[in-house]
Structures are given as C-alpha cells and as structure tokens.
Amino acid sequence: MPIDPGALAVFIVTGFVLSITPGPNMLYVLANAVGQGPRAGLVSSLGVGVGALLHAVAAAFGLSAILAASPAAFDAVRYAGAAYLVWLGVQAIRKPVAQKRLDGDATSSPEALFLQGVITNVLNPKVALFFLAFLPQFVRPEIGSAALQILLLGLLFNVTDTAVNVVVAVFSGGLSQRLLRSVGFSKALAWFSGLVFIGLAARLVVSKRG
C-alpha cells in the first residue's frame, strides 16, 4: 500500500473536518448556487475540485514551493485572483438571473462556470500553501515515493471536499431556485453572491503567506 494505513486514517478524519468547515471554496460554491441555482453550484464544485487537484499536483512536484519561497510570485498570483473575484462579483450584481431571463440573455453556461471554478481556485496561492503544509505531514518516505503519496492524499482530500461542496450546492441551490423567479428576490440574491465574491477578493488581498 503506497500510504501508511495509520496516517491515512488520521488524514481522512482531519480532511473531513476541514472540508465541512466553511471556507473560501464553500462560500464560492454557495454564492453561485444561491445566485444561479443548484446546477451552477454543482458545476462550480467540480471546477473548484479540479483547481484543487492541480494544486495537489503542484505540491507533489515542488511547484508550490516557489510560491512559498517567493513573495513576488505569491503576490502576483494573489492579486490576479483577487481581481478575478472582483470581476465575478461585479458581473453577478449587474444583472440577476431573473432579469437575464426577462431580457432573453443567457445565464452562465456550465462550461463557463466550471472554468471560473478552476481559475478561482488556481489563482488562490493560499490553497497552494495549504497543500504544501498539510499533505506532507501524512507522507512516509520509507514506504514509497513521497510525490505519489502526496498525489494520492491530494486526490482523496479533493474527493471529500468536492462531495461536501456538492451537498452544499444542491441544498442551497434548491432552496433558492423557486425564489429566483422573482426579479426582486433575484436582485437580492445577486447582491449576496456579488458581495461574497468581492469579500473573498478582499480576504485574498489582505492574506499573508504564513
């Protein structure tokens, strides 16, 4: 077995606790589910999951160490991610889903939502540092390749985290779906979603590497 069973058991429990703790990824999925319905939240969950998996790959091959060692690289990714989140927030506020339907405009396609989820996660350097700090704690080099163990642990954590986000998307999106038919309520949900995105951007800007 490429992963120590004892370390794996502790990892699963710890990973689940971290996954059900509200964080930026869950808030991002929640904002899209509330603003555009359960399908939007579901696709966003998958996009965020793929982004997290890319971070795990980067951690396994040492790429995340560049962000940890270089303040300039960390800041470049951080500000790019914040700018992207602000843009998403402004777009959400400008025209709610119900208003788009009345005007005949298309809501965000599944492909666009998926890509947004990937980009949002990839451009968050704190995720890279999290994987770089968290995953190696459960690696046992004496039983096999450290890179392979990090990849497997990252995949396992990602499956758990994505499953939790999918549940959040289905429940919150289903609750809001009926209310989205009202233009007035749709505007309120749009402001909620937009402000969540902008709040995540602000959080990213003030975050530190440590």
Automatic annotation (TrEMBL):
Its main location: membrane. Pfam families: LysE. The lineage of its organism: Bacteria, Pseudomonadati, Nitrospinota/Tectimicrobiota group, Candidatus Tectimicrobiota. It comes from Tectimicrobiota bacterium. Keywords: Cell membrane, Membrane, Transmembrane, Transmembrane helix. GO terms for molecular function: amino acid transmembrane transporter activity. This is LysE family translocator. One of its GO terms (cellular component) is plasma membrane. The chain crosses the membrane at residues 7-30, 42-69, 76-93, 113-135, 147-168, 188-206. It is a multi-pass membrane protein. It is found in: Cell membrane.
